[in-house]
Fold:
Amino acid sequence: MATRGGFSSRIGFIAAAAGSAVGLGNIWGFPYEVGSGGGAAFVVLYLAFCFILCFPVMATEIAIGRKTERNPVGAFAALGYKKWKWIGKMGIIAGILILSFYNVIAGWAFGYIFEMAAGNFGVAETFGDYTSQVFKVGGYGLVFMATTAFVVSKGISGGIEKMAKLLMPTLIIMIIGLVVYGLTLPNSMDGIKFYLVPDFTKINGNTIYNAMGQAFFSLSLGMGALITYGSYVSKKENIVTAAAWVTVVDVSIAFLAGLMIFPLIGFMSGGTMEGAGGGPALIFVTLAQIFGELGGSLGAIVGTGFFLLLCFAALTSTVSLLEVPVSYVVDEMNIRRKKAVWLVAGVIFLIGIPSLLGNGYSDFFNNFITYIGAENPTDFMSMVISIANESMLPLGGCMIAFFAAHVWKRNNLDDELAIGAPNYKGSFVQKYLNFAIAYLAPIVLGVMFILTVLSTFFGIDLI
Ligand code: PHE
Structure:
């Protein structure tokens, strides 16, 4: 077998894994979930889930990857459990589905860079028209996918790691710049209040559930993205501290994204925070309107900067999504990386076309399916999100944790985590991870999977 390559340094791995985690989920998803989910109370729940539930799953995924030096399917076989390969297969399918629609949204964001630079803020008013111009936005999507494929084709240290080391610091500097700018605007403090002063009466079953799903997606868990990245990590590294760093970076950037967006909404709404609950349109409509409000070249500069930043965040994630099926094809089918990359990227782009068409252009894909018990039909992209993000990821996470603790066994997991981490065994962290992986994660994620399937596809709401 050809050499698989690997990360050249600890910081390179952390940058790449954090790059995978930080994406549309943080900068597009998190603020709108906070906005619709009652503000600061949602933030508190999200933070809790990231550290209590997600961090142990992340360490486990990385450990499985490093132990086996394989893609998510090969990893289960390499540990000697061929029957469990389906978890890896499901992960690869989930990754393909996620990338297929994620790239469409990334394409919209990419196009917005040019709209903002040209001072065309009216695009916010006609966002529905924008997404129905499928040849234009599809073209942006094609460029985005090609860029992703180019990076992945350069390999782990020469492509993924190099890009992450460049883009992650740039992104952090840009986001801090925008936060500072936003805080200078009138009424920005009303945004901060909305964002940071929790009102726990706003928490209900739905908020808890959304915060958990958001945390899990945002940390790229449940589909083997981190098994794959873990397979390129050296035995010298301390997995537990690396996973802790990735969690901290991801959470911090989501937090900064809120700190950037809510003051701007405070400014725009004159302090009433109307518009904060804009849902998925928050970035593309509300925020773009605010850039228009800033006026002329100032709006163009801030708006271009924002969507550039969003694209950087998305790119480090699409790269990790593409690497998962690519590593599978390279390891298991013995196809050269370059060829595998362009082949897989092309197929995923095609799978994304119905998601592209179902946002205004095609009635068939706009109203693709009506679930049992639902009044209105659902569009194709929303269906893919429900299947992949909301169902397959929690199920995958549940099964990975269950497998690691009860099939592969906790002592083997501990042995792998202890390599490069001399103080791990006997520590509190070890005891906590053991508990979380054996009981907490399988149960919580399993329940979440069942609730989603019942509620989304069968109209049975238990919460
Ligand atoms: N974590 C990424 C985001 O927040 C999305 C992602 C999910 C990437 C799963 C890889 C795997 O945007």
Remarks:
- The two ends are 50 Å apart (CA to CA).
